[in-house]
């Protein structure tokens, strides 16, 4: 009887987390706690960091292999939820919700702002070329490069198609830099602008009619997807979401898409993405390298938007010039990059409100990053 009890106790211990723990689990649990701290205590994108941080904890509780609890074990709940991430199902649905939230009025009233969002996509190509130099395949480099857009759903979508094995590191990197926009961008903005440029006052945007708002997503879909059909899953959902918001007859659908549906998808993406960072698959030199490239691409994207505005101002008359502080909003970290432009503008002139202008490059970049993802998928997929 005693030997039987000892055997049962040993078997129980073998199935505990303590018996299966490694140093990697400890590291990733600390990372998960850090994400939760930043999201809860520091209020840095809590809607993203809290689900991701808790997901990291879920994915890194040590367990005995074969018990069907891990995200990579067939039959587990997390494995079923991960399917939507792995097959790129969640990102287009998130884009549907984004479209139902976005107001394209700023970019419709001032099309020049659209060019800023396009210019900021240089961060993607910088990361792509850098990845190629370090020996990654074209598909892997394309998946890594999209981090430069600081667009989490687009990063997940493209990496799920081009480099599924890198998706965890790419997605975590993209969402991390999205959350750190208020920390990373201000020093770059101060470095690349002077005191005179920071107080440029822009003309108020013209009033945009409801007809223009309704036509825009239809025309946008036709123009972008005819040239880049591979971007249809993201762009189609984005423009459809915007159409049901602006057409005036599908308010209930728009409310559902922008509210409950988006909240549910945010939870599912955050939890499964965090849980996919199991120590044995995530703690690799490749993951660290992806984070480093992501930092470079994010800096390049922010800087290219600002520099493009400075160049554009050379050709614009006084009174029509653009405040370079909104150039950083070309990074599609919606809406935080626009808020940073507003915050910085108010710091140097407490009456100069840049938010509405900054929303133009930000929403343009959301379209731009999806178009670039479609281009990369078209010739690398």
The total of beta strands comes to 0
**Overall mean pLDDT:** 89
Give the number of domains.
1
Biggest β-sheet, characterized? none
Q: What would you call the structural class?
A: mainly alpha
- Poorly predicted regions are none
How far apart the termini lie comes to 62 Å
* Helical coverage, percent range: over 70%
Shape: elongated
* Percent strand: under 5%
> Counting H and I runs of at least 4 residues, what is the number of helices?
21
Write the topology of this structure.
Blueprint: H1 2-14, H2 17-20, H3 23-40, H4 46-59, H5 77-86, H6 90-101, H7 105-109, H8 112-119, H9 122-133, H10 138-145, H11 152-162, H12 167-179, H13 181-192, H14 195-198, H15 210-227, H16 232-246, H17 251-275, H18 279-282, H19 285-314, H20 336-348, H21 355-380
Helix pairs in contact: 3-4, 4-17, 5-17, 6-11, 6-16, 6-17, 8-19, 8-21, 9-10, 9-19, 10-11, 10-21, 11-12, 11-21, 12-19, 13-19, 13-20, 15-16, 16-17, 16-21, 20-21
């Amino acid at each position: 009887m005693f030997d039987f009890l000892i055997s049962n106790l040993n078997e129980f211990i073998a199935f505990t987390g303590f018996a299966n723990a490694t140093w990697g689990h400890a590291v990733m649990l600390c990372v998960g706690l850090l994400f939760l701290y930043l999201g809860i205590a520091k209020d840095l994108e809590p809607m993203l960091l809290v689900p991701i941080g808790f997901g990291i904890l879920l994915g890194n509780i040590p367990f005995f292999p074969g018990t069907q609890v891990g995200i990579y074990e067939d039959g587990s709940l997390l494995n079923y939820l991960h399917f939507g991430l792995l097959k790129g199902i969640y990102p287009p649905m998130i884009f549907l919700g984004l479209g139902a939230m976005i107001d394209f009025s700023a970019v419709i009233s001032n099309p020049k702002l659209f060019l800023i969002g396009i210019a900021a996509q240089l961060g993607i190509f910088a990361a792509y070329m850098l990845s190629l130099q370090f020996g990654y395949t074209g598909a892997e480099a394309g998946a890594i490069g999209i981090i430069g857009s600081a667009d989490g759903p687009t990063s997940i979508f493209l990496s799920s198609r081009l480099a599924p094995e890198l998706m965890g590191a790419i997605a975590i990197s993209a969402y991390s830099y999205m959350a750190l926009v208020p920390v990373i961008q201000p020093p770059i903005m101060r470095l690349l602008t002077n005191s005179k440029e920071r107080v440029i006052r822009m003309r108020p945007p013209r009033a945009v009619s409801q007809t223009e708002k309704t036509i825009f997503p239809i025309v946008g879909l036709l123009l972008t997807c005819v040239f880049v059909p591979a971007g249809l899953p993201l762009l189609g959902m984005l423009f459809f979401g915007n159409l049901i918001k602006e057409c005036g007859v599908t308010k209930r659908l728009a409310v559902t898409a922008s509210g409950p549906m988006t909240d549910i998808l945010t939870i599912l993406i955050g939890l499964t993405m965090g849980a996919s960072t199991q120590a044995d698959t995530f703690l690799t030199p490749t993951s660290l390298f992806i984070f480093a490239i992501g930092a470079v691409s994010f800096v390049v994207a922010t800087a290219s938007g600002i520099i493009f505005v400075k160049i554009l101002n050379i050709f614009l008359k006084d009174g029509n010039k653009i405040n370079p502080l909104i150039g950083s909003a070309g990074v599609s970290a919606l809406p935080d990059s626009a808020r940073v432009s507003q915050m910085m503008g108010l710091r140097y002139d407490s009456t100069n409100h840049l938010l509405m202008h900054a929303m133009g490059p930000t929403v343009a970049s959301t379209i731009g990053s999806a178009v670039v993802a479609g281009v990369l998928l078209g010739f690398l997929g």
